[in-house]
Amino acid sequence: MSDASLIAETRRVLLDQGGELDLELLDSLSRLDDVYVPTLAGIAHRVRLDRCGPTVEIEGILSVKTGGCSEDCAFCSQSSRHDSPVKATPFLDAEEVIRAASETAATGATEFCIVLAIRGPDERTMLRLEELVPEVAAATGLNVAVSAGILDHDQAKRLAVAGTHRYNHNLETAKSYFGEIVTTHTWEERFETCRVVKENGMELCCGVLLGMGETSEQRIELIGQLRELDPTEVPVNFLNPRPGTPLQVRKRMNPLDAIRWIALFRLGLPGVILRYAGGREVTLGELQSMGMTAGINALIVGNYLTTLGRSPDEDLAMLEDLAMPVGALSAAF
Ligand code: SF4
């Protein structure tokens, strides 16, 4: 197929028919010359408006238990197996968490995610989360999400009963590349956690981390694997190489390539909440607002788990300039 026919077919399937692209077509789009990136971004933006509407969802995240993680994820500065400057800290108390959640609510955010750097929750952690989730929700009116690693069925059920709105568990990368990045747990364990989250009625937030050395084919493979899980939200992280981690020597993704992949994730996953997450400021630089018109419809504002983001005011100003309304998105599903 010629380049022009590829673009025409993409428009026909996604915009005229409201359908889904097959992965081969998506793979062909990933190989188009850079001059086509704005065209892909434009189609992705139209797809996002058609399927999700104009609203942008804002979320704050808070690391309530930082560092000292037993796992060996090669990108992560919170692993106790890497010689990283991030040191382990104990579980924050409820007051500190509610203070941070209230600050998040003041930005117009609707979602607040409590994040723990752990393989999965032990019984003590489960009991704390079962207390904390309803407390934060009642104090702030925010939807409360949790990210606490690998869950079994019973744990997922308990978190759902406690009122957890969304559970975050990232696949991070394609099954065929996962073994290069993590050896202490398997891709299948992650996939199974995502499955039990949905089975127990929580919304699934399942993110990716691009730029770890995976191939374009593996990114397309990952889109296919995300389709199997059908998550509500997909946060897109870009590798921000952290000192002391095995990936510290990797180069950051090129900004235009990052825009291409934002667009491709929207074209491949037309109805998801596609959220800007870690690494966007350092990867995209001046192109951050272009991502908002390339398929992104949600942001994490403020700081990330171990790195600083730009100020929420700058993001809110960007959304105002783009005339994009802020609100909750899960109701649309
Ligand atoms: S990504 Fe999560 S599981 Fe992996 S080392 Fe970091 S905190 Fe632990």
Commentary on this structure:
The protein has 333 residues and is of the alpha/beta class. It has a single domain, classed as Aldolase class I (TIM Barrel), CATH 3.20.20. The protein has 13 helices and nine strands. The protein has helices spanning 3-16, 23-30, 37-52, 94-106, 123-140, 153-161, 175-181, 187-199, 216-229, 255-268, 280-284, 288-292, 312-321, and strands at 57-65, 111-116, 143-147, 166-168, 203-205, 208-210, 233-238, 273-276, 298-300. The chain has a nine-stranded parallel beta sheet, with helices on one face. Helix 5 (123-140) links the parallel strand 2 (111-116) and strand 3. Helix 6 (153-161) crosses helix 8 (187-199). It binds iron/sulfur cluster (SF4). The site of iron/sulfur cluster has 9 residues, from loops.
Query: Biggest sheet: strands side by side, in what order?
Result: 5-4-3-2-1-9-8-7-6
CATH top level label = Alpha Beta
| Net shape | globular
Span between termini: 35 Å
How much of the sequence lies in strands comes to: 5-15%
Please tally the helical runs, counting DSSP H or I stretches of 4 or more residues.
13
Number of domains: 1
Q: Mean pLDDT across all residues, rounded?
A: 94
CATH topology grouping? TIM Barrel
Largest sheet: 9 strands, parallel
User: Spans of 5+ residues with little confidence (pLDDT < 50)?
Assistant: none
Which structural class fits the helix and strand makeup?
alpha/beta
Q: Could you estimate the helical fraction of the residues in percent?
A: 40-55%
Heteromolecules bound: iron/sulfur cluster
**Architecture per CATH nomenclature, i.e. the level-2 architecture:** Alpha-Beta Barrel
- Rg from alpha-carbon coordinates: 19 Å
Extended strand count: 9
Q: What would CATH call the homologous superfamily?
A: Aldolase class I
Q: How do the SSEs run, as a string of H and E?
A: HHHEHEHEHEHHEEHEHEHHEH
